[in-house]
Amino acid sequence: MTVMAMDTRTHPDDHALYWLRAEFAGHRIFRAVRVDGSLGEWVASLHDPRAGVDATVMCPTAEELRAALVREGERAEMRARFR
């Protein structure tokens, strides 16, 4: 019987995606794919209105997306206070 080895290599962005998804569970977070097949913007799509205000947030880096999602959370808290 032949056993095939699994490819355990990961893309460098996989770790950032994992941590962003864990921290911002109210969003669906992924990388956009450009027409040429390369990875594009970091994208967060809102799934829990308590987690943000804008339906979609896009940034060029994981760090910028994280900062934008922190602001989104703050905006959602402010909106909830004035309802």
List keywords for this structure.
3 strands; 2 helices; 37% helix; alpha+beta; three-stranded antiparallel β-sheet; 83 residues
Question: Topology, pairings included?
Answer:
Blueprint: H1 13-23, E1 27-33, E2 39-46, E3 56-59, H2 62-81
Antiparallel strand pairs: 1-2, 2-3
Distance between the termini: 65 Å
Number of helices: 2
Strand line-up across the major sheet: 1-2-3
What proportion strand?
15-25%
Structural class based on helices, strands and sheet pairing: alpha+beta
How many β-strand stretches?
Answer: 3
Radius of gyration: 16 Å
Shape descriptor reads elongated
What's the helical proportion of residues? 25-40%
Q: What pattern of helices and strands is seen along the backbone?
A: HEEEH
Mean pLDDT: 91
Plain-language structure description:
By secondary structure, this protein is an alpha+beta fold. It contains two helices and three strands; from the N terminus they run H-E-E-E-H. The chain has a three-stranded antiparallel β-sheet with strand order 1-2-3, with helices on one face. The mean pLDDT is about 90.
